Amino acid sequence: MPEGDTVHQAAGRLHKALAGERLTVSDLRVPRLATADLTGRTVLEVVARGKHLLTRLEGGLTLHSHLRMDGSWRIFAPGERWRGGPGHQIRAVLGTASHTAVGYRLPVLDLLRTSAEDEAVGHLGPDLLGPDWSPGEALARLLAAPGREVGEAVLDQRNLAGIGNVFKSELCFLLRVTPWLPVGELPDPERLTALAARLLEANRHRPRRTTTGRPDRPLYVYGRAGRPCLRCGTPVRTAQQGDPTRERPTYWCPGCQSGPAPAPAT
């Protein structure tokens, strides 16, 4: 599940493979970009902004993509067999003399002027892994709606950019509060932004995400419904939080985390 750490890793791989190289292949397989041809343009850089990827090109163009739940960019050497899904799931191909980047299942793919990138990412709050990270600004945005549930507030990319469903559950566990606690009732709200930044920074370069530091049990609560809490042994619970049309299971330990919880819970 792509979150801020994995998106920054993807940006790094794309930048390493493409930056400074001239495109010899350009194939954007979405209807509105079917006639766009980027062949001959040099890739200047690839950067992450929250969960968004910005591939900046010579001539003032940016290819904007978002991975959401299961999108991915894969890098292949010349002649290497493409692996990442069936061909009908490919949404973008960017090739140079030395590498080919293939975008699979990209739900968002847009071509825009680099000067107009704010149209795609200007709504985002401070990026937890970006040069614009400001814990004070992120905290101010979170506390602007003190009655909002912590879990929903940290998922809102307008508050702080980079947290997804995994880090949401893990962050709340480490804060010892349930995801349904109102933001205004956090005993130490400054700790939230500091811990969020520390979690993502610690996973910036890790191939496998962890919050526990244990390779055998990398996460405290996420994906561990019904299993004993690693800290107190109480069975971990799961429930839906927020928009019921989006499948976002939330995990927490009723023994370690204080605050409201949904009923019934499993």
From TrEMBL:
GO biological process, one term: base-excision repair
Matching CDD domains: AcNei2_N (cd08971)
EC number: 4.2.99.18
Residues annotated as domain Formamidopyrimidine-DNA glycosylase catalytic: 2-115
Gene Ontology molecular functions: class I DNA-(apurinic or apyrimidinic site) endonuclease activity; damaged DNA binding; oxidized pyrimidine nucleobase lesion DNA N-glycosylase activity; zinc ion binding
Reactions listed under catalytic activity: 2'-deoxyribonucleotide-(2'-deoxyribose 5'-phosphate)-2'-deoxyribonucleotide-DNA = a 3'-end 2'-deoxyribonucleotide-(2,3-dehydro-2,3-deoxyribose 5'-phosphate)-DNA + a 5'-end 5'-phospho-2'-deoxyribonucleoside-DNA + H(+)
SUPFAM superfamilies (UniProt xref): Glucocorticoid receptor-like (DNA-binding domain) (SSF57716), N-terminal domain of MutM-like DNA repair proteins (SSF81624), S13-like H2TH domain (SSF46946)
One Pfam family of this chain: Fapy_DNA_glyco
Domain FPG-type: 220-258
Domain of life according to the entry: Bacteria
Keywords, sorted A to Z: DNA damage, DNA repair, DNA-binding, Endonuclease, Glycosidase, Hydrolase, Lyase, Metal-binding, Multifunctional enzyme, Nuclease, Zinc, Zinc-finger
Family in the record: Belongs to the FPG family.
PANTHER family the UniProt entry points to: ENDONUCLEASE 8
Protein name per the record: DNA-(apurinic or apyrimidinic site) lyase
Organism: Streptomyces gougerotii
